[in-house]
Design brief:
Order of helices and strands: EHHEHH
Low-confidence stretches: none
Keywords: Membrane, Transmembrane, Transmembrane helix
Distance between the termini: 28 Å
Number of strands: 2
Largest sheet: 2 strands, antiparallel
Radius of gyration: 17 Å
Number of helices: 4
Mean pLDDT: 93
Strand content: under 5%
Shape: elongated
Helix content: over 70%
Number of domains: 1
Protein name: Transmembrane protein
Structural class: mainly alpha
Oligomer: single chain
Length: 140
């Protein structure tokens, strides 16, 4: 259950990429009926807001936290801190409820999920990039 601390970045990369990919997939599958310049612009706004205000900072914070762990092996779930697990739980719960109960129109789902999913996927890619950098620095 314990792994090298550098592998926490790899786990974070996979978790965020899978989550982002799934949300992006839902958004894109809903998008077909709503393709327009306005919706494209709104999707970009959602992406940039989430990336710049949330996920860019989050990737830096968690990468720094993981790098500062002692060199001994760490529990695999420490790729997140407690606060992040709570946020993820509520985001997933609200997302599922909103979609299954049809609380928001499909146009909103298309725009919002595509922007959010892209930002989440980018966070996963950044964690994977940080893992690769960490591996290279350990070798050289």
């Amino acid at each position: 259950m314990k792994i090298k601390k550098e592998r926490l970045l790899l786990i974070a990369g996979f978790v965020w990429s899978i989550a982002g990919g799934n949300i992006l997939f839902i958004g894109l599958n809903t998008y077909a009926e709503y393709i327009s310049i306005r919706n494209g612009a709104l999707t970009l706004i959602v992406f940039f807001l989430f990336w710049l205000l949330v996920f860019k900072k989050l990737t830096r914070k968690h990468t720094k936290r993981i790098r500062e762990y002692p060199d001994e092996k760490q529990f695999f779930w420490l790729f997140f801190d407690k606060k992040s697990f709570i946020i993820m739980f509520f985001m997933m719960t609200f997302g599922i409820v909103i979609r299954t109960q049809h609380l928001l129109p499909n146009q909103f789902i298309a725009v919002f999920y595509t922007g959010l999913g892209t930002a989440l996927l980018l966070a996963g890619i950044i964690f994977l990039k940080n893992y690769i950098r960490e591996q290279r620095s350990l070798k050289g």
